[in-house]
Specification:
By secondary structure, this protein is an all-alpha fold. Helix 1 crosses helix 2, helix 2 runs antiparallel to helix 3 and helix 3 packs across helix 4. It has one domain. It is about 65% helix and about 0% strand.
């Protein structure tokens, strides 16, 4: 998977998660609401971040950047999904 495809897939996954609730798949608006997370999430995943580390980062971003009051467990599910997605993509890249 090339870097552009990886970013597009991550954008899609973050939009599906939609923690601030502004993304509407039917309207495809706003498609870039979570783009500020793409680079940092990919950097963490490429360094081998696990679910706990990624969940903690996302929790911080929800609270600090987006001004939300996250509920316990809110970031755990998406973090697990993103770690699995990234590892699967890396395996596909390695095997061709």
């Amino acid at each position: 998977m090339n870097p552009v495809e990886r970013q597009e897939e991550l954008r899609y996954l973050l939009n599906q998660w939609a923690p601030i609730g502004v993304y509407d798949e039917e309207l495809d608006f706003p498609p870039d609401e979570y783009d500020c997370l793409i680079g940092p999430v990919l950097a963490r995943l490429s360094r081998g971040a696990g679910v706990a580390e990624l969940s903690e980062y996302l929790w911080y971003e929800l609270e600090d950047h987006f001004g939300l009051d996250p509920v316990p467990g809110q970031t755990d599910g998406i973090a697990a999904k993103l770690v699995l997605w990234y590892r699967h993509g890396a395996e596909r890249t390695e095997t061709g």
